[in-house]
Write a structure and sequence with these properties.
Shape: elongated
CATH superfamily of the largest domain: Recombination protein O, C-terminal domain
Distance between the termini: 68 Å
Order of helices and strands: EEEEEHHHEEEHH
Number of helices: 5
Radius of gyration: 21 Å
Structural class: alpha+beta
Number of strands: 8
Number of domains: 2
Strand content: 15-25%
Bound molecules: zinc ion
CATH architecture of the largest domain: Up-down Bundle
Largest sheet: 5 strands, mixed, barrel
Strand order of the largest sheet: 1-2-3-5-4
Length: 258
């Protein structure tokens, strides 16, 4: 890429740079993850600044000079996602989704399906209060791994091919394991985990099947182990508990006075 470029993008991350600039990590359909610089974006009157807050979905005009980082010359908003930004659990889920995409997909590789999956999920997080629930986050993350070419073995033991019963999951072996192959490999699973993972693969993101928190934590561990062993990528663990963080945190409890 050289000279002027126009592209759709999702702003994954924004960092302060110099006096008034921002360096942005953006994800584009045809050029994957890119670093760009928005000069003057932190000045109060900047036309760029407010439109480039993660996780905005924007149309970017870029100029690529001799250096390896393109300069943002114009931006228009495609989706500002205002409701997403009002809820802490939606912000957490969007931040993690952007972090995953940035870690799993490298620079200058075209990934249109991953771009559309990310835009779809951000749209759900804006419209739908349930989109930040663990099952939706896990389903998104699993679909990202599939898009990265990593399909876990869920139909039979990943090591010996036995149909089961399947009692453990090993990221290193790439899927579920039978009782002969585990232990020592993998971690013991709840019997509901295989169906939860197969259900997430077989359902659209918006219809991700629900599961108990215990199963969700194992699902998350399975995905982080897979990504670490096969892609060399450390994904952040999801926070999966029974409580939801939907709105601003409650005021701290007043300590009783003795
Ligand atoms: Zn086996």
């Amino acid at each position: 890429m050289a000279g002027p470029i126009q592209t759709e993008a999702v702003v994954l991350r924004a960092m302060k740079y110099g006096e008034a600039d921002r360096i942005l990590h953006v994800f584009t359909p045809d050029h994957g993850r890119r670093s760009v610089i928005a000069r003057g974006a932190r000045r109060p009157k900047s036309k760029l600044g407010g439109r480039l807050e993660p996780p905005s979905h924007v149309e970017l005009q870029l100029h690529e000079g001799r250096g390896d980082i393109a300069t943002v010359t114009g931006v228009s908003t495609i989706a500002a996602l205002p409701r997403l930004r009002e809820r802490l659990d939606s912000i957490d889920a969007a931040t993690l989704a952007c972090d995953d995409v940035g870690r799993l997909f490298g620079d200058d590789e075209p990934h249109p399906p991953i771009f559309h999956l990310l835009v779809n999920y951000l749209g759900q997080l804006d419209r739908d209060l349930d989109a930040s629930r663990p099952e939706r986050q896990l389903s998104f993350r699993l679909k990202l791994l599939l898009g990265a070419g990593l399909a876990p073995q869920l139909g039979a033991c990943a090591r010996c091919g036995s149909p089961g019963p399947l009692v453990a999951f090993s990221g290193e072996e790439g899927g579920l394991l039978c009782g002969q192959c585990s232990p020592p490999r993998g971690f013991a699973i709840d019997p509901a985990l295989p169906d939860a993972m197969r259900g997430a693969i077989g359902s659209p993101l918006a219809a991700a099947p629900t599961m108990a928190a215990r199963v969700g934590r194992q699902f998350d561990r399975a995905l982080t182990d897979l990504a670490e062993h096969h892609l060399g990528t450390k994904l952040r663990s999801l926070r999966i508990d029974e409580r939801r963080r939907r709105d601003a945190p409650p005021a701290p409890a007043v300590e009783p006075t003795a």
